[in-house]
Description:
This protein has helices spanning 13-33, 61-69, 71-80, and strands at 2-10, 37-45, 48-58, 84-92. By secondary structure, it is α+β, with helices and mostly antiparallel strands. The chain has a single domain, classed as Alpha-Beta Plaits (2-Layer Sandwich), CATH 3.30.70. Strands 2-3-1-4 form a 4-stranded antiparallel sheet. Helix 1 runs antiparallel to helix 3. This is Quinol monooxygenase YgiN.
Amino acid sequence: MFGLMVRFTCKDAAAAAAFDELVARTGEKIRASEPGTVIYTVHRVDGRPLERIFYELYRDRAAFEAHESMEHVRHFLAEREQYLSGVEVDWLDLVGGKGVDVEH
Length: 104
């Protein structure tokens, strides 16, 4: 498994609403066309209305690379910048958990 966590900070409330719309449109396409994307979740952060946290888990590195090459993801990556004031990415190495098989 291959994963990452991303913290996005939106510029303001209007940007956050537009970002959420972009995320919703992109998420529909991810669910419909990416079998190697195991988990792709988006969270609002309680008490921090401009922040969003994405948790992404892929079957393997190749599934992540396939995700990144998809037209809807490339569109998301190009469009998101206008709404954001910050992006932090943490690359994750899955050790264990419920609901996923861990291969070593």
